[in-house]
């Protein structure tokens, strides 16, 4: 049985396993944090070119967030020493910035979570570097469609299984694999909270969606099989068959009528190419 608890920003914020139901104040805070997250990814567009290092991208993000009054949530999180995760080609998630440079043909996910006034704005977006092969561009396109189809199901009275099924059905229609090892999550004043938001499932199953819930939807879609493995650095997850992987992520809140997306691009950059 799923437990729900109505909370406010001044209540103790420990992770109890119960799903928090927030009020308007929290939604306003999440919109502010989500906007900075989206602005950060917008800022990157002219910089995502062949020859730039992932370390330089990380430094740009760090400076941008701090200058606007935010703090990167990943910096120092469980010993992580960077302000973003940057995942290239067959890296599924949690790629570590380094002096590795991007090259033409790469597809790249950049994942940011600035904290603003205590609220976490969590989002990720794909970028196409130079001339990208059609097969890779198609994966990126379908992955974005999976995210938005999942969000369409995020409304009161539906269940997490409805969100997951919409994602899984669309991905598998294109013979892609949906990663099972990582999922979305609740958030707010905590970086990771209940519920877990899996991206495969059956309609009508899982926790019921209720007004006030805040969580991410972040499907990871592979051209090949869904299996992943963790590298020795303890962070980087890659496709076990070395096939390409793509991901998009939004933070959303359930309302009485449907949902609000906190991390929409102010520049209108929804999916690449960003023009």
UniProtKB/TrEMBL annotation:
Give the species this sequence originates from: Sphingomonas parapaucimobilis NBRC 15100
- Binding site residues for substrate: 94, 192
Q: Which GO terms describe its biological process?
A: proteolysis
Q: Can you say what this protein is called?
A: Methionine aminopeptidase
Gene name, Swiss-Prot/TrEMBL: map
Q: What Enzyme Commission number(s) does the record list for this chain?
A: 3.4.11.18
Keywords assigned by UniProt, alphabetized = Aminopeptidase, Hydrolase, Metal-binding, Protease
Record: residues binding a divalent metal cation 1: 111, 122, 249
Co-factor binding comment: Binds 2 divalent metal cations per subunit. Has a high-affinity and a low affinity metal-binding site. The true nature of the physiological cofactor is under debate. The enzyme is active with cobalt, zinc, manganese or divalent iron ions. Most likely, methionine aminopeptidases function as mononuclear Fe(2+)-metalloproteases under physiological conditions, and the catalytically relevant metal-binding site has been assigned to the histidine-containing high-affinity site.
Family, as annotated:
Belongs to the peptidase M24A family. Methionine aminopeptidase type 1 subfamily.
Catalytic activity annotated for this protein? Answer: Release of N-terminal amino acids, preferentially methionine, from peptides and arylamides
Write the signal peptide boundaries.
Answer: none
| Functional summary from the UniProt entry | Removes the N-terminal methionine from nascent proteins. The N-terminal methionine is often cleaved when the second residue in the primary sequence is small and uncharged (Met-Ala-, Cys, Gly, Pro, Ser, Thr, or Val). Requires deformylation of the N(alpha)-formylated initiator methionine before it can be hydrolyzed.
Among the GO molecular function terms of this UniProt record, one is: metal ion binding
Q: Which residues bind a divalent metal cation 2?
A: 122, 185, 218, 249
Give the quaternary structure. Monomer.
Co-factor(s): Co(2+); Zn(2+); Mn(2+); Fe(2+)
Q: Which GO terms describe its cellular component?
A: cytosol
Q: Start and end of every Peptidase M24 domain?
A: 29-256
Q: Does the keyword Metal-binding apply?
A: yes
